[in-house]
Amino acid sequence: MKNRQSSRRSNQDAGATRRVALATLSGTVLEGYDFFVYGTTSALIFNSQFFPSLSPTAGTLAAFSTFAVGFAARPVGGLVFGHFGDRVGRKATLVVSLLMMGIATTLIGLVPNFAVIGVWAPILLVLLRFVQGIALGGEMAGATLLSMEHAPDGRKNLFAGFPQMGTPAGLVLANVVILTTGAVMPDSAFNAWGWRIPFLLSAVLVVVGLFVRLRVAESPSFEAAVSRDHVVARPLAEALKVGFPRLTVTLFAAVASGAVGYVFMVFSLSYGTSTVGFDRQFLVLCVTAAAAVWCCLIPFWTTVADRFGRRRMFLAGSVALLVAGCAFLPLMDSGSRAVTLVAFLLMGLVMPITHSVQGAIIADTFPVHVRYSGSSIVMQTGAIIGGGLAPMIALALQDATGSSLGVTFYVALISLVSLVAAVFMFRMPPVSLAEPAPLPDREPENQAV
Predict the structure, then answer these.
(1) Residue 10: CB atoms within 10 Å
(2) Which residues of 385-421 are buried (b: 16+ CB within 10 A; e: fewer)?
(3) What pLDDT was estimated at residue 10?
(4) pLDDT in the model for residue 183
(5) Rounded-to-integer distance, Cα 219 and Cα 228, Å
(6) Is the distance from CB of 39 to CB of 67 less than 8 angstroms?
(7) DSSP readout, 297-342?
(8) pLDDT tens, position by position, 412-424
(9) How far apart are the C-alpha atoms of 91 and 71, rounded to whole Å?
(10) Which residue has the higher pLDDT, 341 or 226?
(11) 418 and 355 Cβ atoms separated by less than 8 Å
């Protein structure tokens, strides 16, 4: 009888753990979809819809500027959601972030263009993009923690990797919808109004995400911290006590993944169409194929990390990212479709090696009771440095040099910085994850969230 009850309880626990993995994955997929629908459209459409008075290059640069606004907002989301995530729980904050992202994305699909409302069109676009950034700033760290803190023994990297799959999976979903929409209507119709359809579909997708996410349990680590009275009034200030050197090397170890990723996911679309001469559908298909490979390989690399450790894997992946990033645009410059497809698939093979475990690495930098705040600020600051500015910097360098050479140098430099930072990061002694002693008396200020 006891064995049967134990087996039933074990099956129930395994089912609950799988639900958490599915919930965190589905949520980050939907938020990734929303974010990348904007990124792809900004590279292909927004210059003519919202900045028609500018030259093609200036209009694309302005469109990429609105794309970067989302990254500027992400630390704000990290601060706000990190604070509440450490104070009231991971689950509630993730529900709010999903709602914010879905509503903002749907409204972007309804914003009139410049021809209809003039300067208010780009202003509204920027405001809604800012809301998107706040939502995503609270999502990734929280989803990683919720999944990782439910992980069975010995599978922490695997479960922390499920939310990381949301980035490439969301990109695949976004591009499939964009490709399908573009295939069923003339280019003129897609450029005029068809681009809005992928944004409006977010309203349907967010309902699915909420249904899954509302069924999961709160993080057991957070519940344990609450039960032992380890909730602190200012979690970010407490998280920063791990020290500036560790925060710095952890931050810069992760920036190459974002920079190289957004060069190949976003900048390549405008560069490939305007400079190399490829058609839009071919490039979107290449990005989609690369993202699918990237997504499928994340469980493999996180399993390797759980079994053999992540230090050597991360360092080797950083070297591979440096090499692949330097080769990417020169391969595109060949003008060959076959060679260009190989270049994209190479990025899909290399990206997941470091990206799959960097969420767990960042989370392990901080004690449990302040982990949401600490992880959020590191992830989102890294996203600005590595991701948000990458398309703008790449376009400016390409325009200044008249070739891809400046962009390739930029990719090489930031990849080298990340590699050196990772070497120093892994040489540091492990941070103590001890939680504070229970507070003897709760101060009145501690009652406020």
Answers:
(1) 10
(2) bbbbbbbbbbbbbbeeeeebebbbebbbebbebbbeb
(3) 46
(4) 84
(5) 14
(6) yes
(7) HHHHHHHHHHHH-SHHHHHHHHHHHHHHHHHHHHHHTT--HHHHHH
(8) 999 999 999 999 9
(9) 23
(10) 341
(11) no
Crossing angle for the helix pair 255-262 and 244-253, to the nearest 10 degrees: 30
Question: Rounded CA gap, 366 and 390, in Å?
Answer: 28
The long-range contacts involving 50-53, CB below 8 angstroms and separated by at least 24 positions, are 50/113, 50/114, 50/121, 50/122, 50/125, 51/114, 51/122, 52/114, 52/115, 53/114
Q: Give the span between the Cα atoms of 97 and 235, in whole angstroms.
A: 19
Structure tokens at 371: 């982990």
Please state, in angstroms and rounded to a whole number, the distance separating the CA atoms of residues 413 and 403: 17
Helix, strand, coil share (%) of the chain residues, nearest 5? 80, 0, 20
Per residue in 242-275, pLDDT (tens digit) is: 888 999 999 999 899 888 988 888 788 888 888 8
Measured distance CA(78)–CA(1) in Å, rounded: 48
Distance CA 392, CA 410 (A): 12
pLDDT in tens, 282-294: 998 998 999 999 9
93/103 Cα distance (integer angstroms):
16
CA angle 274, 263, 56 (to 5 degrees): 30
pLDDT at 219 over 60: yes
CA–CA separation, 134 vs 143, rounded Å? 15
Residue written as token pair 């410059």: 333
| CA distances to 12, 117, 127, 276 from 256, in Å | 40, 39, 28, 25
Closest to 331 measured CA to CA, from 319, 318, 347: 347
Say if CB 306 and CB 79 are below 8 A apart.
no
Nearest to 198, CA basis, from 210, 214, 185, 216: 185
* DSSP strands (E only) in 2-72: none
Q: What is the torsional sign of CA 326, 332, 336, 341? A: positive
Closest by CA to 97, choosing from 42, 150, 160, 144, is 144
Q: Which has the closest alpha carbon to 392: 251, 266, 255? A: 266
* 305-356 residue pLDDT tens: 999 999 999 999 999 999 999 999 999 999 999 999 999 999 999 999 999 9
Structure tokens at 123: 């202003």
Q: Are 141 and 82 a contacting pair, CB within 8 Å?
A: yes
What would the CATH number be for the domain defined by 11-215+236-427? 1.20.1250.20
The whole-angstrom separation of Cα 277 and Cα 335 is 8
pTM: 0.81
